[in-house]
Amino acid sequence: MTADTQTDAPSNEKPLNFLEQQIKDDLETGKNQQVITRFPPEPNGYLHIGHAKSICLNFGLAETFGGVCHLRFDDTNPAKEDQEYIDAIVRDVEWLGYEWGGAIRYASSYFQQLYEWAVYLIEEGKAYVCHLSAEETREYRGTLTEAGKDSPYRSRSVEENLAEFEKMRFGEYDEGACILRAKIDMASPNINMRDPALYRIRKQSHHQTGDTWCIYPSYDFAHGQEDAIEGITHSICTLEFADHRPLYNWFIENLPVPSQPRQFEFGRLNLNYTVTSKRKLKQLVDESYVDGWDDPRMPTIAGLRRRGVTPAALRKFCEMIGVTKSDGIVEMAMLDHAIRDDLDKNAPRAMCVLNPIKVTLTNYPEGKTETMIAPGHPNRDDLGERKLPFSREILIDAADFREEANKKYKRLVIGKRVRLRNAYIIEADECIKDAAGNITEVKARYIEGTVGNDPEDGIKAKGVIHWVDAVNHVAFEVRLYSRLFSDEAPDSGDKNFLDHINPESLTVLPHCVGEIGLLDAEAEQTYQFEREGYFCCDRTCCDRKNNSLVFNQTITLRDTFNG
RNA sequence: UGGGGUGUAGCCAAGUGGUAAGGCAGCGGGUUUUGAUCCCGCCAUGCGGAGGUUCAAGUCCUCCCACCCCAGCCA
């Protein structure tokens, strides 16, 4: 192409997303000296995977541009909030591995300042107390296509508004009797600008401020000012707030705030086969469709955690899906990939038989015991090795034996050989059935000298199956999970998501057996049970002494076998 | 029918006038004591549609279409 040989080296650098580009520009042009972002959940429920995207975005942006990210509770509505949620949210953000700058912030700690700014707006003639009922307010607001009309209270004097607002603040009015409104434009094509509510009366005690207040600022009046107080440079929220940006800016321009934050919007995460709406997730919990916010089937961060998903997997997933302003629906397969990718690299291996049947090795001496050695991970020496007791009687999975089978079946068949993983090759001779015809035992022979070697007679085994010693093992319960919803878009259109709950999302296997080393499994450790999938030692049921050990299936191994 | 947003493969997503990155899924093959992992190959004459500008258009202009969000004293 040109004389000087320029290798068009494929750039490995990930292209910047639109927010990274924005911040890079702002830093380069000197618009901002540093970047300060914030993750501002309302403590009215547990965080879900959509929040994970926002967390990775906000904390990630601060991280890559050498700034800080605040954790701030947007607790402006005591009616819906609870300390339990605050605690859970803090736990989830920490678990994801992010550190926020400074102390945890609360919108409620700015209530006094916000109140003074409300008074300021009144004094400027830009806010008024309105006594229209909620219904009247709606009527006066107009519609999407028709302008609204001014409230009869809109033209009150500053003095009267001041006095009325004070009466609101000191509890002289009942809830709903009046609100403080901004005086902007009842004919604005943007409905958010039609004299929005600034303060409403809520005679409820607040989890942080107790009974100090009986009036609480609205989201619109609080959020931008919170950002300004904290010096947030880039206030990032989801697309549905784009219409609020002019109002966000109106407050920043009309109030003596200490900094000039700017709002940017990105597309929220939608995942198929699930719902990501706090309201709906709360309903699943409240109406006992699941066992709690951290039920392993829930798309909450707490649920994913209990399921065995790692912070690294979630972060990888967020990186994979990108950040844009288009609203798409991400396939669950992407999340699955991120989970398997991390777990394959990092999960220690173990053997576990989900549906045990006994195999007796008729030519193996009674009373003899050997110890097989297996790697903790096929390509991670740092994960050590495992000791596997082996004797005359072992347990294999019922699915790994058939009396007869076609040649696509690579497991144990009468008259055929199979490799016992990390141990001998065996050959099946016969099976024993109970009265109902179920196979209860297989009689087989082991081939001497085949640990780590092929048989001397040259007849190799076609497949490999996992096993556990019949005596020297640990018994536990395994819980298998499949998707909570059977519909790809359970809450789309006019569907009721509750109609699409998968009745078979949980399968309990009470009598599983695992290799003896699992006795030392720690809560929340995820293992790969070879040939079966990934399983996580349940946080609440990890007491082997009292026989209450439980493993939650995180995800199966990828299965491309089609035969 | 008002305002705000978004349309690139089955899904996510780069692309900033110079001839369509990457990932997921899928398909084919190789390695393998996990039907896993890993490795190799295939997978958009076309970017919502129609016109136009230009030597050159996914990128610029015009019109049209589709989808999402907004009428809480929720966030």
Description:
With 563 residues, the protein is an alpha/beta fold. The longest helix is centred in the first third of the chain and has 16 residues, at 49-64. The chain has a seven-stranded mixed β-sheet. The protein has a seven-stranded mixed β-sheet with strand order 21-18-19-20-12-15-22, with no helix packed on it. The protein has a four-stranded antiparallel β-sheet with strand order 4-5-6-7. The protein has helices at residues 18-28, 49-64, 83-95, 111-123, 134-141, 158-169, 219-230, 245-254, 278-286, 301-307, 311-321, 332-346; strands spanning 36-39, 68-73, 105-106, 127-130, 179-182, 197-201, 215-217, 234-238, 262-266, 349-350, 352-353, 356-361, 370-375, 385-390, 393-397, 401-402, 412-413, 417-420, 425-433, 439-446, 464-465, 467-469, 473-481, 506-515, 526-529, 533-537, 550-556. The model is unreliable at 1-10 (pLDDT under 50). The protein binds one RNA strand of 75 nucleotides through helix 5, strand 6, helix 7, helix 12 and strand 21.
The biggest beta sheet is recorded as:
7 strands, mixed
Helix segment tally: 12
Low-confidence stretches: 1-10
- Roughly how many Å apart are the termini? 50 Å
Give a quick precis of the structure.
The protein has 563 residues and is of the alpha/beta class. 24% of the residues lie in helices and 23% in strands.
Write the layout of secondary structure elements.
Elements: H1 18-28, E1 36-39, H2 49-64, E2 68-73, H3 83-95, E3 105-106, H4 111-123, E4 127-130, H5 134-141, H6 158-169, E5 179-182, E6 197-201, E7 215-217, H7 219-230, E8 234-238, H8 245-254, E9 262-266, H9 278-286, H10 301-307, H11 311-321, H12 332-346, E10 349-350, E11 352-353, E12 356-361, E13 370-375, E14 385-390, E15 393-397, E16 401-402, E17 412-413, E18 417-420, E19 425-433, E20 439-446, E21 464-465, E22 467-469, E23 473-481, E24 506-515, E25 526-529, E26 533-537, E27 550-556
Parallel strand pairs: 1-2, 2-3, 8-9, 10-25, 12-20, 16-17, 18-21, 23-27
Antiparallel strand pairs: 4-5, 5-6, 6-7, 11-24, 12-15, 13-14, 15-22, 18-19, 19-20, 23-24, 25-26, 26-27
Helix pairs in contact: 2-11, 7-8, 11-12
The structure holds one RNA strand of 75 nucleotides.
